[in-house]
Each structure stands twice: as structure tokens, then as C-alpha cells.
Amino acid sequence: MKRAGFDSRWLPILLLLPQLSIIAIFFYWPAVQALRSSFYLEDPFGFGATFVGLENYLRLFRSSEYLKNAWFTVIFSVSVTFLSLAIALLLAVKADKVIRGAKTYRTLLMWVYAVAPPVAGFITLIMFNQRWGPLTNFFELFGWDFRVRLNYNDTAIAMIIASVWKQIPVNFIFFLSGLQSIPRNVVEAAMIDNRSSVSRFWTITFPLLAPTGFFLLITNITYSLFDTFGTIDTILRNNPGDNPVTLVYRVYLDGFRGQDIGGSSAQSVVLMVLVLLLTVFQFRLVERRIHYN
Amino acid sequence: MADLSQPRSVASETPAPRLPVARVNWGAVGDHLILIAGVVFMVAPLLMLVQMSSMPDIETIKSGPSLQWGDQLWPNLMKALFESMSFSGDNTGLNMFWNSTVLGLGFAIGKVIISMMAAYAIVYFRMRFAMIAFWLIFTTLLLPLEVRIVPSYEITQKLGLLNSYTGLIVPLIASATATFFFRQFYLSVPEELLEAARIDGAGPIRFFIDILVPLSQTMIAAIFIIMFVYGWNQYLWPTMIITDESKYTLVQGIKQITQGLEGSQQVPEYGRSNLLAILAILPPVAVVIFFQRWFVKGLTESDK
């Protein structure tokens, strides 16, 4: 708040009203609703709901299907986060170094930011077309008969590739921006002290990029949990069958298609807790963050 | 954060070789090779889509993407824009393009206006409940829409907003990303401006319109771009809220497009489908490329 703020009584309320009312109706109400109905078992024909306590949660953790989805979500998130961060970091370091064509590289490496996740899924389906897909052909060179939507692992790999492709640009932009905010004199001093560019990277650049990296780590985990929904749904063509699905997809399947409101709400609450933990973790890191300017 | 568009001039990293004959800088060649590989990975899929949409579908079905350039681009584009994908006849490419535009622009404009107002109230007024308002708004950053999707749907249904632009756009605005960012920006505006304006007798509305809004122009542009891309690319929410095909967005339509490609008796129309996918990519990508500088600045400064 500014020291010399205005004193009007009604104006600020008027200014806040649109935002607060939208949030109240479309954020707090549904969030409370999810919390509430996670303790109820809803009648599938709409004849009221019975309070069942923690039953919905217990049902979740007893369901081998749910645990399998949870495990897949972990593997999926770790792979997507690690791969997209690593590839983006490599590209950013190189893009920061080259002089010729630097701007062109940047543009060509970041445009995918604006591609919608389902389109990434659509492209993946074409790439992995059973008959002539370029990536199917590529894997065939190694004797790997790649079958998206027919083989559990192959589907998972296709989902990971699509999600990584979609996420590289954001990471690239942040890493590049982080690299360019490292002061010149630090870079020059490092060059005098250390001839090897590889060891210079690990001892100087990498630690200086750590704050950006931590921030991106959380962003990427959140991305792979939530924003990949469109990619996954498109690859599964709306019909999961025996294929891997993430926890968010499961919330949608059970709640929207299966009409299991109680179970779906319990899943929502589990995810909410997960996001809250991630956010707390992120704040802890931000608090400790060091600024090098 | 540094400005990405200004390449930093890096002094020659590898020490100059003693013999002036060998001038090839192998380090730089390696850098370029890695970057080129990255570019191919990112761009090749798009080129493939474009190539396929120029070919007759019969060819594509037999042999897939190739290096040939066909003559079907125009007819395929006409089909994509004006022919409907289903019996209702309402979801032509052009119609979906219009709906996507409404969603993208409506969301971006609504979000920018609402969050500028809210941030102004929080930063520039002495209010007893400013902190409460701030935390109420800020908490929304914690839970993405995907988590509370089913109850959000039920509430939208109760309010009778299914299949309406309002039901499509307004619930998406219920998160505080932009508010938080404008708050940060206002806090960085020098206090003296406010004092000077008050001495000159400017009231809160005058100060906002004549001083703060012009000052925030770059920030508004950056946030607007990010929000437009975000809105245009929404998938899950439109899929749930919109069942009326005349209100389908392009990104939402991708699902129908993919379902049309496989598993049906008629010839899968790759040309048309790919063009619809390209149509769905084009506007947000164009915005990001043309306004790259603002967009990158907004992104790297807002998300922290």
C-alpha cells in the first residue's frame, strides 16, 4: 500500500467488486463445494446425498486403479519436468553464446509456447501414425514396433514427448533471461579463472541459474499435472481404455463421465492439497532466494 | 531481467589458435549444430502439417508426410473454412475461428480491466480490509481450474450459463495472476507521482486514467498478449461448458477433428484437419512472434 493513499471509502470497494464477486462465485463456491461433496455419497439418480465421512477418500486409496494412476502421474511429471528443463537449459546456454543468427534461433525455439496442448496431441497422433508416422518409422529403425493407444508404455512415451515439446519454450525463455541477467563482470572473471567452458558452466553459471531453475521446477510440475490435460485427452481420443491417465484426467473421467461426484471431489481435494504443498515449498524457496543484481 | 532481444556480445570464448591457418571455431560449430537440432525438433512438426495439407488426401493416406508439395492447399483451405464437420452445419472453421477470437479477446480484455481495477484499489487506497482483499484474491493463485472442474461446472449450470460466452469466459477470469502482476507493478511506481498529482488536485479517478494507465502501457500490452494466448488455448473448460456446435472454439474442435481422422468409414481428411489445426495455432503464434519483446518481458517478470 502506498503511504499517501487515497481516503475514499466507496471507490475501492467499487473497484474490487468485479474481481471479488467473480472469485466468490467461481472460485470459493466451487472449492467449498468440492470439499463438502468429498464427504458425501451422491445418489446417481439425483435423489440427494448421504454423509459418508472419509469413505470417499478411503475408497480412493484402496482402489488399485487410482494408485496406478497416481504412480503413472509421478513418472509422467518427473520425466516431463526433467526432460523439458534439461533440453531447454542446453538450448538456452547455446543460444546465449552464439552471435550469428541469435535472434532467429530464439524466435524459432519459443514460438511453440503459443501452441495449444490439444494441438500438440493432434500432431503427436500424426507423428505416431501406425502406417507412416515419421516417429513410428524412426523407432522402427531400432526394431521397436511403436503402438500408440494399443500399448500402455508406448502411449505413455508419446504423451511425454508431446508434453516436453510443448513445455521447452517456456523454460527456454526463462533460462535465457536468467543467463542474460548474470552480470558481465562475473562472466569475465570466470573466463580468466577457468579455461574449460564445461567446468565454468557447472561451477559458475549453473549455481547462478539455480533460482530460475527452482522456480521453473515448480512451474513444470504444475504444468505436467494440470496443463497436459488437453494433450492427453487428444492422444487418447476421448477414450482412455487401458491407457495411462494422469490424476487430473481421472477427476474429469469419474466426475464428469462417471457421475461419481463424491469420489471425484475427494480426488479434487487430494490434488488441492498437493498444489498447496507445492506452493508452500515454492514460497520457502523464494524467501531464501538470492538476488545477484 | 535482461532484455532478450539484445544479444550480448561475448568475447571470443576459445583462445585464438596460434596458427592463423586453422580459423574454424569448432566450439561455435557445435553450438550451432545443437541449436539447429533444437529448431528442427520444434519446427519440423509444423512444416509437416503444412506439407500434408497441400496434398490430396488419397496420397496422404497411402504414404503419409513427404517432401512433395501438392496443389490441394487452396481447396483444402476452403473446405476447412466453410465446410462443417458435422450434421448441424454450424461448426465451420470460420465459425470456430470467430468463437476462439471472442474467447481470446474477451478473456484478455476482461482480465486486464478487472485486475487493473482491483490492483489499484489494493495499492492506492487506505482501506481497513485491503489485506483481507489481497489474500482473498491471492489465494486463487493456488488452485487451478482443473482441480475444481466438476463443482465449477455445476455452478455454471445452476446459473444457466451453459453454452454462453459469459459462462465460457467469466469463470476463467477467476484467478489472480494478472491482479498480482499489476500490484507488483504499481508498487514499483514512484510514490512522488502520487504526491505530485494530489498536490495538483487530482482525484483517484483522474490519477488512474491520466497517469497510471499511460504509465502501465507496456505492462498492459505484455499481460494482454499472455492472456490472449491463454484464453485462445483453453480446452477443458470449453469442452465442458459448450455443447452447442455453433459455439465451438477451434482448440475444442481439435477433439472432433482427431476423431474424424481415424476409425471412420469415409476417407480421413488430413488436408482439412491439418489446416484447422494450423488455424488454431496461427493467431496466438503470430501474436507471440510479432510482440516478442513485450511478451518475453511480461512473462519473465510477471511469473515471479
What oligomeric state is this?
Answer: heterodimer
State the CATH architecture of the largest domain in chain B. Answer: Orthogonal Bundle
End-to-end separation of chain B: 11 Å
Strand content of chain A: under 5%
* Gross morphology of chain A: globular
CATH superfamily of chain A: MetI-like
The largest chain-to-chain contact, stated as pair and per-chain residue counts, equals: A-B, 108 and 111 residues
Order of helices and strands of chain B: HHHHHHHHHHHHHHH
Give the CATH class of the largest domain in chain B: Mainly Alpha
Q: Determine Rg of chain B (CA atoms, Å).
A: 25 Å
Strand order of the largest sheet of chain A: 1-2
Main sheet: strands, sense, barrel of chain B:
none
Tally of individual domains of chain B: 2
Key attributes of the depicted protein:
heterodimer, A: 293 residues, mainly alpha, MetI-like fold, 73% helix, B: 304 residues, 2 domains, 15 helices, globular
3D structure, described in words:
- The complex is a heterodimer of chains A (293) and B (304).
- Chain A is globular.
- Chain A has helices at 10-37, 55-62, 64-97, 102-110, 117-127, 134-140, 152-180, 184-193, 197-227, 229-235, 247-257, 261-288, and strands at residues 40-42, 49-51.
- Chain A is an all-alpha fold and 293 residues long.
- Chain A has a two-stranded antiparallel sheet.
- In chain A, a hairpin with a 6-residue loop joins strand 1 and strand 2 (49-51).
- The relative contact order of chain B is 0.15.
- Helices cover 67% and strands 0% of the residues of chain B.
- Chain B has 2 domains: 26-71, no CATH class; 105-251 and 283-302, MetI-like (MetI-like fold).
- Chains A and B meet through helix 1, helix 3, helix 4, helix 5 and helix 7 of A and helix 1, helix 4, helix 5, helix 6 and helix 7 of B.
